[in-house]
Design a protein that fits this description.
Elements (H helix, E strand, L loop, with lengths): L7 E7 L7 E6 L4 E7 L8 E5 L2 E8 L7 E6 L3 E6 L7 E5 L7 E4 L5 E6 L2 E8 L7 E6 L4 H27 L8
Antiparallel strand pairs: 1-2, 1-12, 2-3, 3-4, 4-5, 5-6, 6-7, 7-8, 8-9, 9-10, 10-11, 11-12
């Protein structure tokens, strides 16, 4: 992995008024590096990640699996994201591809994240507090293009999953004793 003296900082945020979901990843100057959009699907919503208007990755939930699994197709190689079934902290492991074994691990309240592979940290993310939309600042410690793309895929996936969790929590009826 290539590391630079000064880490690169990216910012990821969910758009406020988006029907299916749109996530943008920008640099410090506000230039959009990646855009992610959910596409309509019957049982699951695939996410498309684009860079400069061309699709660089697609993330699709694998249906009917015991553990949460997502298939990722990139221009270079496919791989799998595997979530941990029962855990206090969010954990996503990369299976296959160049970054096989990389692990995105979240803090207890999903405010901070760290992406590492074989003990070497690739990126760290920290949530922005008191904002209208979900935002994270990402410090890339490995700014090579493949590591940047992997970070974009994992952080997009993370925000998409947090959005799904929020929708499910809002849809649950309030128990009668709490009304």
């Amino acid at each position: 992995m290539t590391t630079t003296a000064a880490p690169k900082t990216l910012h990821i945020a969910r758009k406020l008024l988006s029907l299916l979901g749109k996530i943008e990843i920008t640099d410090d100057a506000g230039t959009i590096l990646y855009e992610s959009r959910a596409r309509w699907g019957w049982l699951s919503q695939p996410w498309s990640i684009t860079q400069d208007g061309r699709e660089v990755a697609t993330v699709t939930r694998k249906l009917w699996s015991f553990t949460p699994i997502w298939n990722v197709a990139t221009n270079e190689e496919p791989f799998i994201l595997r979530g941990k079934l029962w855990s206090w902290r969010r954990q996503i492991t990369v299976v296959g591809g160049r970054f096989d074994g990389a692990l995105l691990r979240g803090s207890l309240l999903d405010m901070d994240f760290e992406l590492a592979r074989h003990g070497q940290v690739i990126a760290r993310a920290q949530a922005k507090v008191l904002t209208l939309r979900t935002r994270h600042s990402i410090e890339l410690l490995d700014s090579s293009p493949p590591a940047q793309l992997l970070t974009a895929i994992l952080m997009t996936h993370l925000l998409a999953q947090k959005g799904e969790d929020n929708k499910m929590a809002a849809a649950e009826p309030t128990p009668p004793h709490l009304q």
